[in-house]
Amino acid sequence: xxxxxxxVPVVVIMTACTSTKVAQPSPSxxxxxxxxxxxxxxxxxxxxxxVISERNGDNYANIxxxxxxxxxxxxAVQLKQDVSASGNRFxxxxxxxxxxxxIKGSEAALTVTTNGQEFNFGCTAQ
Length: 126
Fold this sequence. Notes:
Helix content is about 20%, strand content about 55%. The protein is an alpha+beta fold. It has an eight-stranded antiparallel barrel. The longest helix has 16 residues, at about 1-15. The chain is globular. It starts with a helix and ends with a strand.
């Protein structure tokens, strides 16, 4: 039994030393994503980086939001395309927070509704 207990730390150390390799994107894949991304400067020192993509016939906006007034720092949010009179509109919501991202040309608007309070940001593409 004592020999078995002495072996446990060795096994734990050996297990900790082994790692599974995670596939990393190639430089060309990173460049392809960056080429599709668009940065928007918004009211109140906010910034949104947006990448529009298509999956299974549906369009999505993958956005990273930095908004000091909401204590968001590169918060990643995926929104699905929604009905829009003109331009593109993407939305997502859960029990406490809703995001609405509307883009038309170089102008955009981000609305974040959290706990019944609405925050609006006018944005311009950079």
